[in-house]
Each structure stands twice: as C-alpha cells, then as structure tokens.
Amino acid sequence: QERLVESGGGSVQSGGSLRLACKFSGYIHPNYCLGWFRQAPDKGREGREMVAYADNGGRPGYADSVQGRFTISRDNAKTTLSLTMDNLKPEDTAMYYCAVGLCPMLGVPDVVKWGQGTQVTVSS
Description:
The chain is an all-beta fold. The chain is about 0% helix and about 55% strand. It has no helices and 11 strands. It has strands at about 5-10, 10-15, 20-25, 30-40, 50-55, 60, 70-75, 80-85, 95-100, 110-115, 120-124. Strands 2, 4, 5, 6, 9, 10 and 11 form a 7-stranded mixed β-sheet that branches. It has a 4-stranded antiparallel β-sheet with strand order 1-3-8-7, with no helix packed on it. Strand 7 and strand 8 form a beta hairpin. The protein starts with a strand and ends with a strand.
C-alpha cells in the first residue's frame, strides 16, 4: 500500500522561498502521478486544489496560479517528490498535501492516497 510522508513547510515572508519534500513508499502504478494539493484555511477537503503533479517520467503539470514560481521534481530511485516554491505570496498560505492518483491528477476525485499535510504560511 502506498504511503506518503511530507516534510518541510513553515512560515516565510512574502517573496521568500520554501521547499517541500514527500517520501513515498509502496507500489506506485506507472500510470499514476504524484503531486501536491493545497487546502486554504477557509476550504474543506473537497476544496483542495491541485498545485503541481509529475507523471512516472517526471513530466510536470502546474496550476496557473503557481506556474513560473513553483517547481516539482520526482525522483523514483530515491522515492522522493519535492516542490520548490519561490516568490511566495500570502495567497499561497495553505495546508499542502502530497498525493498519488490517476494522471493527470487535476482534482480531488483523481486522488487515491493522501499524505498527512504540512502547513505553509506566507506573511505580507
């Protein structure tokens, strides 16, 4: 069974950078993507939005709101998924979740497994 464990996150001022990491274990089907979702403070679970994902070959996809600022990287040999977040904005404040699911994993219904989440807070 897949297991996802996030690390990183924290608090930063607007314009700063953070890096999230997700260690994954268990069998990940080659047709599955790994990625990151986020849940804003005023949203419920169904309000989680896709941030970025990478397929088995590492090809990425990004939400428009983070394109050009965030970079996702998948290393299957090290079983690690990372998200480098630059030029952070207060609206990026959310709980960030590592996820695995059907490619291209654009929404909550595509996800089959969630990590426990890690908080990112950006102050102005």
